[in-house]
Predict the 3D structure of the following.
Amino acid sequence: MKKKLNFQLTSIAILSILLTMTLILIVYYDLFRQQVMEELKTVARMLSNVENLSEYSVRDYDTEVDNMRITLLDKEGNVIYDTDADASFLDNHAGRPEIAAAYEHGEGEAIRMSDTLSENTFYYAICLNDGGILRVAKEARSIFSVLGSMVPSLIVITFTLTILCAVIARFLTKSLIQPIEDMANDIEHMGEVKTYTELEPFINTINSQHEDIIKSAKLRQEFTANVSHELKTPLTAISGYAELIANGMANGEDTVRFAGEIHRNSTRLLTLINDILRLSELDSQTSERPLEDLDLYEAASTCISMLELSATKHNVTFHLYGQRTFIQGDPQMLEEILYNLCDNAIRYNVDGGKVDISIKENEEHVILMVQDTGIGISEKDQQRIFERFYRVDKSRSKKTGGTGLGLAIVKHIAEQMNAKLQLDSTLGKGTTITIFFPQK
Ligand code: ATP
Ligand code: MG
């Protein structure tokens, strides 16, 4: 990439140098040609003004200008006098382009290449009052000879400019590439690298992706630590009670109690493992099951009957409001949402409390509302209860067997169903969780 850029920049520079040189040469030679022609014209016009122009007056004049050949012709194109040759040896000139043009239009010009290519002869002919022709000619360098004399300086200039361009191209390429290399070497601090505006969107994307990666790695690490910790507690208890029994340190009554503890803790372990598995299943999003039409009202009443025993135990009463309302989704996911919300509404309720489940709908949403008259959640905790393993009151939650994963699962499922979650709670008064499912 660096080499390619370098090469391209240098090539462009060399190409433009050569083009410019050629253009300068063409313009320069054209000016030179015009100048020679002008000179010939001036001399010819001046001489043609001489009255009764004869070979003698031409001969006189000839000594004053050098390098110029003057030819005098009669009406038929025969040479009367020529400054450079004996007129009697010269053939009829009437056919020469500049002479023919002069007979016809009063003046004519022509440029002819000499045999060696290095010289051109410029001709200018003018018609005289007596019908004869005066022709002035001059040998001058051809474009090739000018080019030839320019070649050494051209080479030097091109060479110097090329080196200069190569150095600048190298510098430019470096300043283009350097920030990218710097950033690649140290992604952590890529925000501190001095760059240019065009790179900013690229940096921002990489930066946010990098942050996401770090964040999710941290979350995963935290989760693993939490899982180990959560598993450790019931396992320690199980191992402790089992050891007591094994050592024969428990009498008959104790053994029953210890076995009960072992049972309770292993149930908790199983619940934990189930919840963790469910979360990782939701994380990997492999459950691409076909969507079904689900009756939210029916699902809610099934959930209530499932939790009836627990409600009675906590002295909490259920009420279901609404009518048959359909949403699209996975039946297991809907059941999990309902179960977790209702379970919380019972567990974090007060003795004699109430739980109201209402199902409503508007044009955009089907709305499920689970409202309890329980202990409520403080504002500080409201932001955290959807986190994995987060429990407001660890001891109370543990007593009720909570793992702190229920609402994390609810949030995850809601996201997958494109549903919005809303939490309203007042400490000591109660909690309402509302879910807005999208209309079909
Ligand atoms: P799990 O549901 O996995 O058995 P859990 O109930 O402790 O365990 P979540 O359902 O995620 O976990 O709830 C997290 C915490 O939020 C609970 O421990 C509780 O402190 C608080 N909480 C949840 N629902 C309510 C509610 N309706 N009223 C008061 N506090 C609640
Ligand atoms: Mg719960």
User: Anything to note?
Assistant: The chain has a mean pLDDT of 88. The chain has three domains: 2-146, 215-284, 292-438. The longest helix spans residues 2-48. The pocket of adenosine-5'-triphosphate (ligand 1) is lined by residues 275, 340, 344-345, 348, 372, 374-377, 385, 390-393, 397, 402-408, 431 (CB under 6 Å).
